[in-house]
Specification:
33% helix, single chain, D-Maltodextrin-Binding Protein, domain 2, alpha+beta, 7 helices
Length: 194
Amino acid sequence: MAATVETFSRALSECENEFDRAWCKKIPDLIKNEDADIGFCVMPVEDDSLKTTAYVASDFVVFISSDHRFANKNQVTMKQLKREPFILFSEGFTLHDSVIAHCHRHGFAPNISFETSQWDLMVELIALKMGIALLPKSIAKMMHREHVTVLPLSEDAKFQWEIGMVTKQKKTPSFAAKAFEEVAQSLIPQHLTS
């Protein structure tokens, strides 16, 4: 996302841009109500009045303490995580709902030990053996992970985090919005491999 904003800002430096960070769950409503031209949020977006374009896809992985009994495994199953304390993003985050839904699909409700809006705090708590977390692999690439091990989920437990670019279906985009959309779409192949 940062690369898209940077590329767009350099290409159209004469445009005044306003970038705002909102709760992912609110972004579709901002677009629908025309309070924003373009948004990025976790897919799927179930609204026929909105157009979505895949932007980032990343497998979920398990973050555990490097001292955890699973730390030396090649992968873990959801069944193995059933009794583990989970650290989740706060309720306002779509990732919160995604992890809970995935646990339910595997026959259990996660034992939630902590919720936070900050992924860096989440990772610190994991390093301190306060719990485990299911997070997108792309987050693992961005962080310093001393005392934390990242493991893939087994084949039967895999699921993805998908971010899409959202615009209003029947709205003629402004010059700046159209230019931003073109820049974002030109960068999509790079992002889908993360």
